[in-house]
Structure formats: C-alpha cells, structure tokens
Design brief:
This protein is α+β, with helices and mostly antiparallel strands and 420 residues long. The protein folds into 2 domains: 139 residues, Creatine Amidinohydrolase, Chain A, domain 1, CATH 3.40.350.10; 216 residues, Creatine Amidinohydrolase. Helix content is 31%, strand content 20%. The strands form 5 sheets. It has a 6-stranded mixed beta sheet with strand order 4-3-2-1-5-6, sandwiched between helices. Helix 5 links the parallel strand 5 and strand 6. The protein is globular and about 70 Å long.
C-alpha cells in the first residue's frame, strides 16, 4: 500500500508486463541477480540548481504576463517538482503551490505535513497551512485575495483535480479560471542543458543495463525474471527503475502486453521496453531481438521498423509540425503493406511522445499535432509494427531537438544480431 508522503517514482507492473519492485513486496519473487561486475555511473549527475529553478519561475512569470494570467495553481506531481522542488504525493489532503505573475510563490499544505514538505522546497515561498477541520480551497482563495487577485484570472495546471478548480470557482466567484497550459507547457516542453544532461545520463544507464541483461536472457525465462535482472542492473548503475515491460512471442503484438503466460522460446520475439530516472529525469528505450535463428518475417518487420525510426529522425526539424513526423513514418509503412493509418497489422499508436520529468509529456508525434518543433524539445522515437496473433517489433530511442536538428540520447541498433 502506498501512503501519502514524499513521492516515490518507482512503479510496479503486473501480469505479462511484470517487473518486480522488490522493496515494496514482502520478499523478492526471484533470486537477486549478481550485479557484481557493474558500477555506478551517475556520480557526476548534477541535480537541478536553485538558480535554474528560479529562472523557471521567471519564465513562468513572463508567460503569465503575456497571457494576462495572474496566478497558476499546481498540485503534486512533475510540474510541482519542476517549479518548486517539492516532491510530494497527492492524497485527499490537498497540498498545492500557487505561482504568481509577481511575487513569491505560496505553498498550501496540511499543518502536520509542512515540515516534510519544506524538506524539498527549493525556491523562496510562503508556506500556508490548514488544519484538519479547515478548507484548503479557502486557503487558496485567501492567498489570491491577499495578492489582490480577488477578481483576477487564475490558470489551473492540466492535471489538477476537479474538486480544486471547482471549489475555487465557488469560493471566489470573481475569479476567472482558465487553463495554465500556455505557462506550464511553455516552460516544461523546452529543456535546458542541465535537463538534457540528466536525460542523457538516464539513457546511458538504461543502455548499459540492456547490454548487461541481453546476453543473460535464457530459453525458458519468464518476463518477471528478465525484469528483475533489468531493475537490478539499473539500480546498480545508479538509476532509479521506472518501468520494465517484457513481452515474449505473441504478446509482443500488443504494445502494452498480455496476461497470458509467457516464456522465452528459441526463434520467438523478445520485446523489452524499459526506462529509469536520474535526478527525476527519465529514459524510455525499447529493444526487440530473437534468441536463436531469426524467422524471415520477423527480420523483415524489424528492418522496416529500423528504417521507420530513421525516417522519424530525419523528418524532425526545427519548425516542422510535430504531427508531420508521424505522417512521414506512416506513409512509409503503408508502402510496405501496413495500415493504413492506425489500423493493424501496422502502427496502432503514435510515433512518439514528449519526455522529461514525466515519461509521457506533451506534445506527441501524432497525426494533426501542429505544434512546431523547437530546440530543447525532447521526444521518444518508437514507430513499432504489430501483427496480432503473431508478434510485434518496437525499437525506441529518445531524441532532443537542437538548432541544427535532432540529436539522439541513445543510438538505435543497426541489426538484429546487435540489438543493444
């Protein structure tokens, strides 16, 4: 059971996507892998500085003034970490931050949680507390009124729960409640050099873990065993395991897996989709390979997906609408007999997603997404192909946009014989 408190980024996947998170269970499901040959590679990973976080606040203030928004309300999650450093988990007891177009932020939190919340607070802010018999929404309304925003415009971060925005609208009817996407996305979508460096380190950890795990996968292994090895290697290398999806044989035809029992078999696909975080910033890398002799149809699909990744990479240029990346891949796949569009057999999901503090962030490589690509944006590039009832292939690496075009965080494999 997960209790409210300092946020834990480690996740647990069940069924065929299983990867044990041993510390959260009564005991490990499998023997702890021997990772003695691995060493930590994240000692040089520099956390986000207070100075950088203050620059984020300054950018948010500029965007608020441009959008005529007086304040922004944020609940616990990646956006709260991004702006304030506060690592906390949502519960029925509201903790929230209010960013203002002018002046320091205000943190709203239960009285008894305040000392813990302050532990990760990394910006100047006033902390206002509420008791168990008081309304935190009233505290938000009071903080806004104290700043002269009794009749102003307040932006709501897109993941804030309805009871917060609805309660604020009822308690402060003079306030106009709007979306804060222009501010929050406007900041978070464009990564700085410090953020990109942490994402690069996370990618290096995941690739190193793959290289350690791949030769240790044996015929007869279950997804959970492979996942346990991946988590152990990731932890030893200095990353925090986020997820490890392991799909075997036919299960690889379903992007997020199957509940059917699976074992590694010679000549059948092994698809792994794994990621970790370093100082909160994430990686997301998929590899597909085949133990033993590779069937001709699997090799053909693998080669097509490999080229699809490169088409996405070549299409991603500054100023190009993000959706055009998806369109270019899909047009190539249709010429190979897949689809059309999102139909199966073919590519049933978007070509890629934004990534950063969250594994999935706006915006996506998906049809009709008109947001132009800009330097600092980061995406996954994962144009898989799925053949229901047979197998699937996914190759996934992440990239970041530079002035001269995209740059890989991890380089895609070039052959089935060297898949990592």
């Amino acid at each position: 059971m997960m209790l409210p408190g300092p946020i834990s980024r480690r996740r647990l996947f069940l069924g065929s996507a299983a990867l044990t998170v041993a510390p959260l269970l009564p005991g490990p499901l499998f023997a702890t892998p021997d990772t003695g040959g691995l060493r930590k590679i994240t000692d040089d990973a520099a956390p986000i500085s207070v100075a950088e976080r203050l620059l984020r606040i300054d950018r948010a203030r500029r965007l608020m003034r441009e959008q005529a928004i007086d304040a922004v309300v944020i609940e616990p999650g990646a956006s709260l970490v991004y702006f304030t450093g506060v690592e906390w988990r949502r519960s029925e007891r509201l903790t929230a931050a209010i960013l203002f177009a002018t002046g320091d932020a205000v943190i709203i939190t239960p009285f008894f949680e305040a000392p813990s919340v302050r532990e990760t607070l990394a910006i100047p802010a006033e902390v206002r507390v509420w008791q168990e018999d008081e309304s935190p929404i009233a505290l938000i309304a009071g903080a806004l009124k104290a700043r002269g925003i009794g009749n102003g415009t307040v932006g709501i971060e897109e993941t804030v729960r309805f009871f917060v925005s609805d309660g604020l609208a009822k308690l402060a009817p003079g306030i106009r409640v709007v979306s804060a996407n222009a501010i929050v996305r406007g900041c978070r979508m464009i990564k700085t050099a410090a953020e990109i460096a942490l994402m690069q380190k996370a990618a290096e950890v995941t690739i190193a873990a793959y290289r350690w795990v791949w030769p240790r996968i044996a015929i007869g292994m279950a997804p959970q065993e492979i996942g346990a090895m991946m988590n152990a290697a990731t932890s030893k290398l200095g990353g925090t395991p986020e997820f490890a999806l392991v799909l075997l044989g036919e299960a690889a035809a379903y992007p997020h897996g199957s509940h059917q029992p699976q074992r590694v078999r010679e000549g059948e696909v092994v698809l792994m989709d794994c990621g970790c975080s370093v100082q909160g910033y994430q990686s997301d890398i998929s590899r597909t390979f085949v133990p033993g002799k590779v069937p001709a149809d699997v090799r053909r699909v693998w080669d097509i997906v490999c080229e699809g990744q490169q088409i996405a990479f070549r299409t991603a240029r500054v100023g190009v609408p993000a959706g055009k990346v998806d369109d270019a891949v899909r047009a190539f796949y249709e010429k190979q007999g897949f689809g059309p569009r999102y139909r199966l057999p073919g590519l049933s999901h978007r070509t890629g997603h934004g990534i950063g503090l969250d594994g999935h962030e706006p915006v996506n490589f998906v049809h009709d997404e008109m947001t132009p690509l800009m330097p600092g944006m980061c995406f996954s590039d994962e144009p898989g192909l799925y053949l229901p009832g047979r197998f699937g292939v996914r190759l996934e690496d992440c990239l970041h946009m530079t002035e001269s075009g995209p740059a890989w965080f991890s380089r895609p494999p070039t052959s089935l014989e060297n898949p990592v």
